[in-house]
Amino acid sequence: MLLQPRFPFFLHGGDYNPDQWLHVPGTVDEDFRLFPLAGVNSLSVGIFSWAALEPEEGRYEFGWLDDVMDRAAARGMAVVLATPSGAKPAWMAEKYPEVRRMTGDGVHEPAREQQCRRHNHCPTSPVYRAKVRAVNEALASRYGRHPALAFWHVSNEYNGECRCPLCLAAFRDWLRARYGSLEALNEAWWTGFWAHAYSDWSQIACIDDSVDGLVLDWKRFVTHQTADFLRAEAEPLRRLAPGVPVTTNLMGFYEGLDYMRLARELDVVSWDNYPQYHERPGETERLAAMTGLAHDYMRSLKPGRPFLMMESSPGPVNWYHHNRLLRPGQHRLKSLQAVAHGADSVQYFQIRKGRGGSEKFHAAVIDHEGSENTRMFREVAQVGRDLEALRPVLGSVVRPRVALVFDRESDWSQKAAQGPLESIKTGYADTVAAHYRPFWKRGVAVDVVDGDSPLDGYSLVVAPDLFLLRDGFASRVEAFVRGGGTFVATWLTGIVGPTGLCFRGGFPGPLRKVLGVWAEETDYLYDDERNSVEFAAGNRLGVSGSFGTSLVCDVVHAEGAETVATYGRDFYAGTPALTANRFGKGEAWYLATRGDEALLDAFHGALARRLALPRALDAELPEGVSAHLREGEDGARHVFLLNFASAPRAVDLGPAPRRDLLAAGASVSGAVTLPPFGAMVLEDA
Ligand code: GLA
Ligand code: ZN
After folding, report:
1. Has 409 been annotated as catalytic?
2. Helix (H, G, I), strand (E, B) or coil at 510
3. Number of Cα atoms under 13 Å in the Cβ half of residue 467
4. What is the C-alpha separation between 309 and 295, in angstroms, rounded?
5. Residue nearest to atom 6 of ligand 1 (CA)
6. Is 499 left (phi over 0), alpha (psi -120 to 50) or beta?
7. What residue spans define the domains of the chain?
8. Among 530, 511, 423, CA closest to 467
9. Which of 21, 147, 271, 355 counts the highest number of beta carbons within 10 A?
């Protein structure tokens, strides 16, 4: 499906800030000379333009934007038009202090921020909401039917939180609606602890980290309030420019918002992708898989459709500790990686590099040097040509049969709890990624879901470290497994319910029945300690031998589940480390310990074989090579082969001839060699 049928091409372009150059005559002329040379067909405009759009309260200046919109329209380019709420003008902060955010640590009184940086507004302030509504109405009535307008880019990277009195009052209202009574809230938060019981709603006035239920609800509220702000921002856009899809640029694994919830407000998902690809041996494949997971997570926010990669960098950014150059070809590879995972765009931050400000050293399509004669410009132009060649892929989708559970609320509740092991809390995304890699390496597509998502249609659902179980999740898992699905849970799963209260009656809580195990105790190892996992001879998985494991070892009783592997050491040697429970027509697995990469690879590899999970390419993929399938509504199939290694890699494509869209449709079959950072996009001949 096309995200925007009026612009049936891969968007290639990105953040463009002509308003920073109004004092330099000729810049916009020069930019429009360079765009076609770079293959740029799309501009994201107005993202931080509030001071240029409304230099004084109520006085709008649209001339510069009219010019850009009209020039874009004359060339058939797609404009992604932003609302400017990501950074407010100084006059507003000065005249209406309530629009400025208040920040605090939960112990001291929150303090009002000064007007500085960006992403610094209060989402509750009626003044801010009114100002945003006015400027958004002005933009929508002026450009809502403009032929260049393709998408609305609402605000920018919503993030952070405000603890001002207005926000805390809204939090209390939200709590009242959620719990109905203070008694219910006191129970849900276990406020008998340390004399925390509230006797009046007004006493809920700080985000106290000794009450983990409060912290968890505060985080939910921040998402709720951000979603509410977003909806308010989008209202005039949807009213005055019907049919123009609304998006906002998300940030992958950003922890501060529950994106599954926020995405309900969006028509199209888009996100900003900044992997630090470089040449450190051994890291590239890990990073490529992690980036792949981030793409899959973002795509899964609106399953079964493409997404936009709203930002990426054509070269080094300015905000990593070490900002290395991308090696020749890496920019192209990382752009194609996004498309392979379902993106219908390759967009950049930024098109023209500014001369000042904190981002003056951030890579751009047009460098300070200013011409088309830079390596980066040429690599961007190459991506532009590639995207043209890939037009048959546009609008096609990824259809995984594996779902990986990545649950933001679970992550929050684990972090809000004190103990049991600090080092695993920071690594939730890494834990999920460790379970993702075995599938990525085999070309098996994966969706990302959370504890509220439907599970039907998947063959395999893997829920690593699912500390918090949402209401209804366990019964959905039971129905899924009973109907023939395979479910995998791991250590530290099913510990708390939705408000952070520990389950009674044994872990993994309501999953105990379907998994057929009771995890009585958990041993947390020192970082350098190890245990081993020994597979039972002749087990149903067909995996044999001994594997290493570390950090977390649940001590488990099998209650009907079959023990497939046991611990090799310590007082719990010989007790279950991996179990399988037949339940209805399906199977539920419990992996009681973290397991080294080799263990996860053997385990998930065996499951993939047993379940005959479809692979993008029926071939052995060498280290560093990934394969991905995009399927069109018309049955078209395109296989992306990507080589992240800095050395050539050989792949056997099998006897059937196919066309490589990246090589002018040249016919390929049999053994092929991908050059370092090379790629192929194969179409059936
Ligand atoms: C983010 C922002 C951009 C810019 C880039 C720099 O993604 O949205 O405005 O600051 O980072 O990498
Ligand atoms: Zn506030």
Report:
1. no
2. helix
3. 22
4. 9
5. 349
6. alpha
7. 11-90+124-160+226-389, 402-610, 625-684
8. 511
9. 271
| CA 115–ligand 1 middle distance (angstroms) | 19
Report the SS3 class of residue 609: helix
- From 311, 409, 534, 587, the catalytic residue: 311
Which of 159, 254, 272, 350 has most ligand 1 atoms within 8 Å of CB, for mutation?
272
pTM over the 0.85 mark: yes
Which ligand is located closest to the Cα atom of residue 86?
A: 1
What is the C-alpha to C-alpha distance for residues 241 and 161, in angstroms, rounded to an integer?
30
Listed residue (302, 337, 154, 300) closest to 229, CA to CA: 154
- 402-610 folds as Rossmann fold (3.40.50)
Of 535, 536, 516, 578, give the one whose Cα is nearest residue 553: 578
> Is any atom of ligand 1 closer than 6 Å to the C-beta of 659?
no
Nearest residue (by CA) to ligand 1, atom 12, is: 317
Q: Which DSSP helix (H) or strand (E) runs through 557?
A: strand 552-558
Find out whether the beta carbon of 272 lies less than 6 Å from any atom of ligand 1.
Answer: yes
The tens digit of pLDDT for each residue in 71-110 reads 999 999 999 999 999 999 999 999 999 999 999 999 999 9
Is there an atom of ligand 1 within 6 Å of 362 CB? yes
What does the pLDDT look like over 499-508, one tens digit per residue? 999 999 999 9
Look-up of token digits 């800095």: 646
Q: What angle do CA 12, 13, 14 make, to 5 degrees?
A: 135
Strand 78-82 relative to strand 149-153, pairing: parallel
Looking at ligand 1, which residue's alpha carbon is closest to its atom 7? 272
- Residue-wise DSSP of 51-110: HHH-SBTTB---HHHHHHHHHHHHTTPEEEEEPSTTS--HHHHHH-GGGB-EE--SSSPP
| CA of residue 131 to ligand 1 center, whole Å | 24
CATH class of the domain comprising 625-684: mainly beta
Model pLDDT, residue 279: 66
Residue 235, CB-side half-sphere exposure with 13 Å CA sphere: 11
Active site residue 311: yes
CATH 3.20.20.80, domain 11-90+124-160+226-389, yes or no: yes
> What does residue 677 show for φ and ψ, rounded to 5 degrees?
55, 20
Model pLDDT for residues 218-269, shown as the tens digit of each residue? 999 999 999 999 999 999 999 999 999 999 999 999 999 999 999 999 999 9
Q: What confidence category does residue 202 fall into, taking pLDDT thresholds of 50, 70 and 90?
A: very high
Question: Is the predicted pLDDT of residue 426 greater than 90, yes or no?
Answer: no
| Sequence-separated (6 or more) residues with CB below 8 Å from residue 452 | 260, 470, 472, 473
